[in-house]
Design brief:
- The complex is a heterodimer of chains A (about 40) and B (about 425).
- Chain A is an all-beta fold and about 40 residues long.
- Chain A is about 0% helix and about 40% strand.
- Chain A contains no helices and 4 strands.
- A two-stranded antiparallel ribbon of chain A has the order 2-4.
- Chain A is globular and about 30 Å long.
- With about 425 residues, chain B is an alpha+beta fold.
- Helices cover about 35% and strands about 20% of the residues of chain B.
- In chain B, strands 5, 10, 11, 12, 14 and 15 form a 6-stranded mixed sheet that branches.
- About 20% of the residues of chain B have low confidence.
- The interface between A and B is large, with 33 and 63 residues.
- Strand 3 of chain A pairs antiparallel with strand 2 of chain B.
Chain lengths: ~40, ~425
């Protein structure tokens, strides 16, 4: 089984300014419920 | 000849299993070819509208392994597998059986809410186990999007031109995954009554839970907004100024022209509004057989509707995802559509052969991997065609009557939403 999330978030072009979406994960990484996938 | 006939010893031997399987495979292949030919003949005889509706049903393409797999009755296999796993295991075989399963699939038995393996009557109950309180702490950052389940990150990124990249560069469109914004016939749309949403609050210094108002909940979680204000649009986010860039403001006439021009490019309903400074992101999480199979809400959000695509039940293993293009758009799935702080939000559990059923806790009407699902979809397609409408390929329900103040069912971060069950 799989879960697909699709969502709208502020564009990451302003990542340097901390205003955009930023991923906290890597491809192939094991994750647990409640772990951060990313943040704005 | 007579002597040979009478004196030759006859020895009976069983047909090799492989030969039998090959024969059954060929038989299935022949049947599917014949069915496909008949389908094409039927479609050719249909009126234009119905023909289009029939062609909306996605069909798999890929190497011969995929073609053979597509001929197998995967849903029937899944149901049989589910029934088998609901059979009670003899008491004294439960511990060694579940320990063997855990050793093969890497289940962490120390995390289980019920550590006594004797109390799980069958594999289905063990598969849908709960976890001990506190073993999955939520990330303290209120701005973080949380992982909805245990699993492995298969893919993540930005959606470009409406396409989600699958493993190894294979892509599928969002319209195929989530469904488009076609007007759904009343034949396939239902309003699901759900209990009035509320927030369960775990007190940090007690082992008790209580209800909280939206304002209390927002305060406890460090949020600057409440869900009703979020959904009604009355609240303006102080830190969300980038939505409209002041430098782009212009006279009303030129702005109207720009909007009109931008609207031409906005062909899909899920695309962010052209004026906003947002983008669409996606992440795919794969749950292995040994993982905890309940899923949770990754953020405070509101589910406004769900779309059930009956589909098939192919495996969603990383191998098949590499092999079968558009796998997620073929499989049975439940698309939950809604809104979160930053706009559009969708959450899609995708079924597989071994975990046939998707359960949504707040949707008692939903039945997945059901014998009646296919016939219901067929009836809906026929009725839509009769009414001159296009069948969208899914059955939709809205949660609009969930609350007096909310247009949908509200979920808080970390809240259990449902799970995958065997068969």
């Amino acid at each position: 089984s799989s879960i697909v999330l699709v969502f709208e978030a502020p564009h990451d072009v302003q990542k340097g300014a901390g205003a955009g979406w930023k991923w906290d994960i890597e491809k192939g990484q094991r994750v647990k419920v409640g772990q951060a996938l990313g943040e704005v | 000849l007579g002597a040979a006939w009478s004196s030759t010893k006859i020895e009976w031997k069983p047909i090799p299993v492989g030969l039998g399987i090959a024969f059954l495979g060929l038989l299935q292949f022949y049947k599917s070819q014949r069915a496909e030919k008949e389908r094409l003949e039927r479609e050719a005889a249909l009126p234009d509208g119905e023909e289009v509706a029939q062609r909306r049903r996605v069909r798999p393409s890929g190497p011969w392994q995929v073609q053979i797999m597509s001929t197998l009755p995967l849903k029937a296999l899944s149901r049989v597998w589910g029934r088998f796993n609901e059979l009670d295991i003899p008491y004294y075989l439960r511990v060694p059986g579940f320990k063997l399963y855990s050793w093969i699939f890497g289940v962490n038995l120390d995390e289980m809410a019920e550590p006594d393996l004797h109390k799980y009557p069958n594999l289905a109950a063990f598969f849908y186990r709960e976890l001990k309180p506190g073993v999955r702490p939520l990330d303290p950052n209120p701005a973080a999007l949380l992982s909805p389940s245990d699993g492995r990150i298969l893919q993540f990124g930005t959606i470009e031109n409406g396409e989600v990249e699958q493993v190894k560069g294979m892509t599928y469109s969002l319209d195929a995954l989530l469904g488009d914004k076609s007007t759904v016939s009343s034949a396939v749309q239902a309003v699901i009554p759900v209990k009035k949403p509320h927030h369960i609050v775990q007190h940090p210094d007690k082992d008790s839970e209580s209800m909280a108002t939206d304002e209390e909940f927002a305060k406890m979680n460090g949020l600057s907004y409440t869900l009703p204000s979020l959904l009604s649009g009355r609240h303006k986010f102080p830190d969300h100024k980038d939505v409209i860039d002041a430098s782009t403001h212009s006279t009303s006439s030129s702005e109207a022209k720009v909007k009109e021009e931008l609207a031409k490019g906005q062909t899909a309903w899920w695309m962010p509004k052209p004026i906003s400074n947002t983008a669409l992101y996606y992440v795919v999480i794969y749950l292995a057989p040994g993982d905890y199979h309940r899923f949770h809400s990754p953020t405070p959000w509101v589910v406004e509707s769900r779309r059930h695509f009956a589909g098939e039940l192919y495996s969603v293993s990383p191998y098949l995802q590499r092999t079968l293009p558009g796998l997620f758009t073929l499989n049975e799935r439940v698309v939950l559509l809604g809104r979160w702080r930053w706009g559009f939000f969708s959450y899609t559990p995708v079924g597989a052969t071994n975990v046939g059923s998707i359960k949504i806790n707040f949707d008692a009407e939903l039945r997945t991997n059901s014998l009646t699902t296919d016939t219901a979809a067929d009836r809906a397609a026929a009725l839509a065609a009769k009414n001159g409408e296009t069948y969208p390929g899914f059955a939709e329900a809205t949660y609009s009557h969930a609350s007096d103040t909310l247009m949908g069912h509200a979920l808080q971060r970390g809240e259990e939403m449902g799970g995958f069950q065997l068969g």
